[in-house]
Amino acid sequence: MQDRYSRQIVFYGIGEEGQAKLSRSRVAIIGLGALGSVAANNLCRAGVGFIRLIDRDNVELTNLQRQTLYNEQDASSPILKAEAAFNHLAKVNSEITLAHVVAEVNAANIETFIDDVDLALDCTDNIETRYVINETCVKLRKPWIYAGVLASEGLTMNIIPGETACFRCLFPNPPPPGSYTTTATVGVLNSITGVIASIESAEALKILLGSPDVRKTLFRIDVWNSSSNYLKVEKNPGCPVCGRHEYEII
Fold first, then answer.
1. Number of compact structural domains in the chain
2. Which of 140, 152, 165, 174 sits CB 3.0–4.6 Å from 233 for a disulfide?
3. Number of C-alpha atoms within 13 angstroms, CB side, residue 114?
């Protein structure tokens, strides 16, 4: 462990005790696209002891512009992202346990994917799925990290049940299906996906380690116009999810 993680162990926020704690930690990554491939790679190399990789899609040629775990051979096969990610990461770090799941995460199956982990990472591009993740994590009192990107802009927020606002506090009402833009319509830069996934990965380490430096604000950045800001999201006492604990979706 000393050699592999030496540059991480000497970092003041981790140390030998922290590295050992990471080796005992368990994470679920929901979505293995642009965000998930970077986050999975980061946490694998950081030595998180168990990582569950969840995705339903095949690797496609359009993915290669930003999804860093895959190559042209994967896209031409085609191969499922969960399988390709597992194959690649298994060659990166044999000291951790990887599990890959081919599934569409929904209200019926999500608890089976996150019940035994310490943290869930939202790396989806699906708004509806985020409401499912939010309700389930609040119900199970599991921390999770929201992350989203579009065009050159990205958002990320740590959601820690009992401490922070939840996703429903931030976005009280889901937008009507088909009413919002997507990466297929407005595009996305690989620079923003890398930035947001790396920030999400850093916050994941802090949460797993119980660091006092866990960010409690929503972070927004636009890499094209060079702007960024932090927004404090207040807990809504009347929030159906974290306020009244009414789980309408799950």
1. 1
2. 165
3. 28
